[in-house]
């Protein structure tokens, strides 16, 4: 049984003061759930403020949105896995579509980042997803399977269960256009099948989140769809009241 995950990706929004105000408003509205996991991915400079504000809520996880593909060295401006971990991060997004498409991150770099994350005792959340052109060309499955294989390329079979996955179709991110629950389920099933064929039953334990224009109106039916084990939410996670309504969604399975 996979526990549903509600993850907020704040992207380049909310500095430390905004984040503190957000959590002051958000936390009293949200109980300590035992049937779901909450996570925040704030900007790296905001992470220590979020970690501090969650000191009494250790069940809420915090992560960084990216790390560099080398562990340390002369890489001005980058963030490293060990530094993220030291600052209180427990998760790291790897291969978010904005990293891939805006910053040119390669499949190979995602594989290195996943490996570094595991070595640093951070849980990687590997993001995969096709562009609109790839979808229209009928390439969705081959793209996500290629991204999955590369992202897990340096992970041993025994470690596959330590990774989280997020399927985020690029055409649905920040566009207001969401995949239907059936669309999401179909690709999640493709990913699940690939995991199982690589590591057998261990592949059944890997949570696969959906992301892309998730909001209050569609979250419940997305979470009810087979193989959808959580949501990774950008725009609709930025407002404390809106995000608290989403994380309190009644789960129908
Ligand atoms: P969105 O972003 O919810 O604003 O579409 C999701 C994401 O990029 O993780």
Helical stretch tally: 10
How confident is the prediction overall: mean pLDDT?
A: 97
The end-to-end distance, rounded to whole angstroms, is 11 Å
At CATH level 3, the topology is TIM Barrel
Helix content: 25-40%
Order of the strands making up the biggest sheet: 1-2-3-4-5-6-7-8
What number of domains? 1
Named once each, the bound ligands are:
2-phosphoglycolic acid
The CATH superfamily bears the name Aldolase class I
Low-confidence stretches: none
The beta-strand count equals 8
Category by helix and strand content? alpha/beta
Give the ordered list of helices and strands: EHEHEHEHHEHHEHEHEH
Q: Would you state the CATH class?
A: Alpha Beta
Radius of gyration, CA atoms, in whole angstroms: 17 Å
Beta-strand share of residues = 5-15%
Instruction: Assign the CATH architecture.
Output: Alpha-Beta Barrel
What sort of overall outline do the alpha carbons produce when their principal axes are compared? globular
Q: Give the biggest sheet.
A: 8 strands, parallel, barrel
What does this structure look like?
The chain contains ten helices and eight strands. α1 packs across α10 and α7 crosses α8 (181-199). The chain is of the alpha/beta class and 253 residues long. The chain is globular.
